[in-house]
Amino acid sequence: MQISVLVALTLLVLIAFGFLTGRRRALSVRAQGGPRLHSLPNYYGYYIALWTGGPALVLLAAYGAFGSGLVNTLAMSQLEREAAPLIAEFERQLDADAQIIALLEEAAEADADAMEAREAITRARDSGLDPQAFQGALAGHTTRLTEIGARLDQRRGEIARSVAARAPSSDAGIRARSGFEFWNSPRERRELFLADARAIAFGEGLASRNTPELRAAALAMRPVEDIFRWSVAALVLSMAVGGLAWGRSRVKASFRARNRVEAAISGLLMFASIIAILTTLGIVFSLLFESLRFFASIGWRVGDFLFGLQWSPQIAIRADQIGQSGAFGAAPLFAGTALITVIAMSVAVPVGLFSAIYMSEYASKRVRAVAKPILEVLAGVPTVVYGFFALLTVGPFLRDFALFLGYEDAVTQSALSAGLVMGVMIIPFVSSLSDDVINAVPQSLRDGAYAMGATKSETIRHVVLPAALPGIVGAVLLGVSRAIGETMIVVMAAGQGANLTANPLESVTTITVQIVTLLTGDQEFDSSKTLAAFALGLVLFVLTLMLNIIALRVVQRFRERYE
Amino acid sequence: MNRPASIRTAVEARLARRHRAERRFQFYGAAAICLAVAFLALLIGSILIQSVPAMTTWRMTLQVELDRAAIDPRGDMSEASLRRGGYNAAIQQALRDQFPDVEDRAELRELFGLYSSVNAARLLNRVVQDPSLVGGTVSFTFPIDDDADLYLKGVSVRESRAPGPAPVRIQAGEGRAVTLSAEARVFDAFVDDVREAARERARILEQRAERAEAALADAIDRDIRAIYEAEARRARAQAERLRDRLDEGAPVVIGPQIPSLLVQVDGAVIRVSDVSADRRSARGEMVISAPLGEAAHSDWTLWTIETPQAGRLISDRQIAWVDALRERGMTRSGFNTELFTYADSREPELAGVLGALIGSVLTMFVTMLLAVPIGVGAAIYLEEFAPKNRITQLIEVNINNLAAVPSIVFGLLGLAVFINTFGLPRSAPLVGGIVLALMTLPTVIISSRAALKAVPPSIREAALGVGASKTQAVFHHVLPLAAPGILTGSIIGLAQALGETAPLLMIGMVAFIADAPSLGLAGFTEPSTVMPVQIFLWSSAAERAFEARTAAAILVLLTLMVSLNAAAIYLRRRFERRW
User: Fold this and answer.
1) Which residues form a coiled coil (chain A) (predicted)?
2) Same domain, yes or no, for B200 and B307?
C-alpha cells in the first residue's frame, strides 16, 4: 500500500514535471527564433504529460485491480504443489473408503427414488389425481439425500483431517498442510482463507483465525508480493521517465502537438461512449453464461423451467447435493409478475393518461406550475419508501377492508397492495410521457376539429387521442417494462409464496422477488439455486428489452409522422 | 311545420348532453390529478405520522458505583485491565439498588430487561477515557429498552387509573403475597370490563364457528370438510371456556389473555392475581414493597392495564418499575440523538442511521467520480465528434435501452463481473458505487446531450471562425455554456442513485453492519450499508420500535434527496441561459 501510494505520488510529480518541461522547451524553441511553433506552448506540455502519465497509470491501475489476485494465485499454487503428495493420498483413501462407497450408492438410490416420485407427481397431475401422497414421498427422499450429503461431507472431513495429521510438523509439512487445506476448501472458504492469510501477512484488516497453516500461507505470500510490488514500482517509474524522454525528444517547432493531444482526447471520449456498449455486453454475457450453467445443472430442461408449475428452489441448498431436488418451474413467478403488472397498469394508465390530458389541454398555467412538480416528486420518491408505504399502510388497510367485507383469508402482503402502490409509482411515468406525446400533436388538427364545431372533449377524444395513440401505447409499454422490473415494492409488499393464482388478495411472488430471495443471505456461487437467479435475470432482461425496443420504435414512428 | 322546431329541440337536447359530457371529461382529468396529489399527501403524511415516536427517546439516569476491584481486575489501572472490568454488573447493581426487594432470578432478568447490556460498552469507553472515575460514583444516562420506551410514550399499552372507590384493608401474607379486602364492591368496574370483553370475544368466536359450519355444509371435498370441522370445533371450545369465565359465581383469575390490574397504595404497587366472586376482595403480590399498616387505606389507585399481557412485550412488573423510575425522576424524554449518531444495532433504542449515511456518502462519491466524467465524455463525443454512422447509431440505441433496463439487472452484472470475476470485496461502497455509476450513466449521458444540444450552433461557428480547432471550440466555448444543464442532469442522476436499493442487495450490501465505515480511503472497501438498504432492513425487523425508526430514516433520506433536487433546481434557475 505504502509503496503504491508513493509510486502514484511520484508519478503525479513526474507528470507535472513533464508538462512544465514540454512548455519550457517549446518556449525556448520559439525564443531561439527560427520557424514558428505549430501549436501553443501548452500543447507541447500536455503532449509530454500524456506520454509520461498515460502508460504508467494504465499499468498501475492494472496492478491495483489484478495484483493481489495474482499474488494469491501464485503463492497458493506453490503451496498446492507442495501438498501434491497429501492430495494424492487423500484421493486414494477417498476412492478406497468403504463408507464413502456405500454412501454414494445409497445416494444414487435415493436420487433414483426421488426421480421416480417426481415422475409420479407429474403423472398424477396429468391424470387429474391428487399428487399429495407422492409429494410426501418426494420430501422424504429429499431429506434422505440431504442427510446422506451431510454424512458424506463429514466422512470426507474425517479423511482429510487424518491425511493432514500425517504430514510432519516441520516447516515443509505445515506448508504442505496449508496447501492441502486450501485445495480442499469450497470456494467461499477459500476466499476466507485468502483474506485471513492476507490479513496476517500485510496487516489488511483483522484475521478471523490464526493457525499455523494460515501463517505458512502468509509467509508464502510475502516474498511474491514483495517481488511484485518492487518490480511494478520500478516498471511504472521507468515507463514514466521513458515516456517523458520520448515526448521531450519529439518537441520541435514543426511538431503538431495540438493534433496529437486532440486525437488522444477524442480517443478518450470515444472510449467513454463505448463503456455504455461494454455495460450492455457485460450484462448479456454474464446473464447468458450463468444461465447456461444453470440449464446445464438442471439437465437442459429449459421447458420445465419456463413452464413448470412448481417453484421451490429452497430444497437445493447444498452445493454438493447429489442430483437436483429443487423444483425450478417458474410459471408461478411469471403469473405473479403479470398479475401485479396488470393491477399496477390499471391504476397508472387511467390516472396518468387523464392527468396528462388535463395538464396539456385544460389546466391553466398556475395549475400546471403546481401539479407538474408534484408529479415529479412522486417520480423521485425511492421505491423502498413506496415498499414501506405498501407494507405498513396500504397492506393492513386492504386486509382490514377485505375482512370487513367478509373475506376471511385476507393477508397483509397481497398482490393488490403491491400492485396499487406500484401503480402510483408509475403514474408520473405514464403522465409525463403522454404529456409530451399529446403536446407533439400539431395544433392544426385541433383547430380543424374546433372549426367543425366539436367541443374540447370531443376534439381530444376523436382527434388528439387517435393521433397520439402510438405514442401513448409506447408510454404504456415503457410503464409495463418498469412494472415488470420493479423490485423493492414487491419484495416488501407482495410476499414470498409462489402461488399460482389470479386472486389479487392472495400473496404472490414475482421474478424480481425471487432473484432477491435467491441471492441474499448465505450463498455459494456454484449452486443451482444461485444460478437460477441469473436465469430469471435473463428472462427479465429479455422481456424488458423487447418491450423497450418496441416502445421506442413506436414512439419514434409517431414523432417522425409529425415532424 | 314543427320539424324545424323539433330539430332545434333535438339539437338543444344534444348540445346539453354534449356539454355535460364535456364537463364530465374535464372532471375526470381534474380528479386524476387530485388523486395523484392525494396519494402523495397520504404517502408523506403516513410516514410523518409513523415517524413521530422515533423523534424522542426515553433515557434512564443511574448513579453507578464503580467499585475499584470490579472495574480494574488486575489492579494496575492499565487500559487492558480497565477493558476487562465488569461494567454491566455495576449498572445491574445500580438498578437493583432502586428495587431492593427483587431477588428471584426470573424477576431479576425482567428487571435487567429494562436496558440493553450493550450500554455497558459506553460506560467502559467513558472510564477508559477518564480513569479517575474508578472508585467513585458516576451518573450514567442511557436509552431505556425499546418496549419500555414505547410504553412511556403511550404507544404500545393502553392503561387507565381510577381512585379506589372505598377504603381497602391490606393484609400481608407469606413472602410478598397480600390480600386486599374492602367493605364495598371496589373491583366492580374492573370485573365488569373484563366480563364485557370476554362476552364480546365469545360472540366473535361463536360467529366464526357458525360461519365455519355454514361452509362445512357446502363443502364436498373431504380434506376441506376436515379443516372446517376442526375450525368450528376449536372456536366453539374457546367460546365455551370464555362463557365459563362469565359465570357470576366464579372468581376472576387474571391470566395473560385479559387485562392486568395493579393497585397503588402508599408507594407500594400490588399486582392482583385474582378477584373474588363477591368483588370485595382480591389476592396479589407486592411488586414494589412499602410498609403498609393494618389500618384501612382510603387513598389508593386502581391501575388497569387494558392491553393483556399476551398482547405486549413489557410485563406488568416492568411497567410498575418503569413507572416508579419515572416517579422518582430517573427517566427523562429527550430528542432522539442516537438516531443520528449511532450505526445500526439489534437494539432499536441504540440503532441509528450514521453508518448508513457514511456508506451512502462513500458510495455516492464513487458513483459521481465515475458516472459524471464518463457520462459527460460520452455525451460530448456523441453530440460533437461522432460521425453519423452505424456504430454511432448503435451506441445511441444502446444507451436508450440501457436507461430502461431494470436496476436489479445491474446488480446481477455487479455480482457476476465485479465480485465473482474481478474478486472485488462484497458489501463494499466501491462495488456499490461502480454498479450505481453504470446504472446512472444513461441518465447523465441523455441529460448532458440535451444540454449540449441547447447551445446554439452560432457559438461553435464563431469559435471555429476565429481559428479554434474543433476540440478547442467544444471545450473552451460550448462546454462552459452547457455546464449548468450538465450539472443539473448529473445531480438528478445522483439523487436517483441515492435512493436505489435493489442492485445493492445483489452485491451483498444487506449485511448487518454494527460499525460505521471509516470516512477515508479504507472505508471504500469495508463492508457497509447505505440509507435505502438500511430502511429495507429496518422495515423487516421484528421489533415494533423499528417501525417508527424506519419512518424517521425515510425522512432523513427524503430530506437528502429533496436538498439534492433543490440544488439542481437552484443551479438551473441561477445559471440557465436561453437563446
Assistant:
1) 87-120
2) yes
- Number of separate domains in chain B: 2
Domain stops at, among B311, B334, B363 = B311
Domain range for B403: 348-575
Chain B segment 247-306 residues within 8 A of A by beta carbon are none
Backbone Cα Rg of chain A: 33
Flag whether B27 is in a domain: no
Residues B345, B355 contacting (CB under 8 angstroms): no
Q: Which residues partner with B275 through β-bridges? A: B252, B282
Q: CA end-to-end span of chain B, whole Å?
A: 65
pLDDT per residue as tens digits for the range A64-100:
777 777 777 777 777 777 777 777 777 777 777 777 7
A465: which 3 cell numbers?
A: 387521442
Query: Which residues from chain A sit within 8 angstroms of residue B506, using beta carbons?
Result: 515-516, 519
Contact map slice: B 204-223 vs A, CB within 8 A: 211
- Give this prediction's pTM: 0.84
Q: Is the dihedral of CA A194, A196, A197, A202 positive or negative?
A: positive
Which of A70, A273, A398 to probe by mutation at the B interface, max B CB count within 10 Å?
Answer: A273
Q: Among A87, A265, A110, which Cα is nearest to A181's?
A: A87
Pinpoint the alpha helices (H) of B296-420: 316-327, 338-341, 354-380, 390-403, 407-413
From residue B307, alpha-carbon distances to A119, B58, B543 in Å are 53, 21, 18
Residues B399 and B483 in one domain: yes
Shared domain check, B391 and B283 = no
Q: Give me the residue from A350, A488, A544 closest to B536, CB to CB.
A: A488
Closest residue, chain B, to A532 (C-alpha): B412
Residue that is last in its domain, among B287, B311, B335: B311
Contact B29 A355 (CB under 8 A): yes
Give every CB contact of residue A159 below 8 A, 6+ residues apart in sequence: A90, A93, A94, A97, A100
In the CATH scheme, what is the homologous superfamily, with its name and number, of domain A333-562?
A: MetI-like (1.10.3720.10)
Label each residue of A445-514 as H, E or C. Answer: HHHHHHHCCCCHHHHHHHHHHHHHHHHHHHHHHHHHHHHHHCCHHHHHHCCCCCCCCCCCCCCCCCHHHH
Assess whether B396 and B503 both reside in one domain: yes
Per-residue pLDDT band for A283 (boundaries 50, 70, 90) equals: very high
- Would you say residue B456 lies in a domain? yes
Asked if B408 and A380 come within 8 Å (Cβ–Cβ), the reply is no
Q: What is the pLDDT of residues A394-421, one digit of tens each?
A: 999 999 998 888 787 788 888 999 999 9
- Establish if B394 touches chain A: CB-CB under 8 angstroms: yes
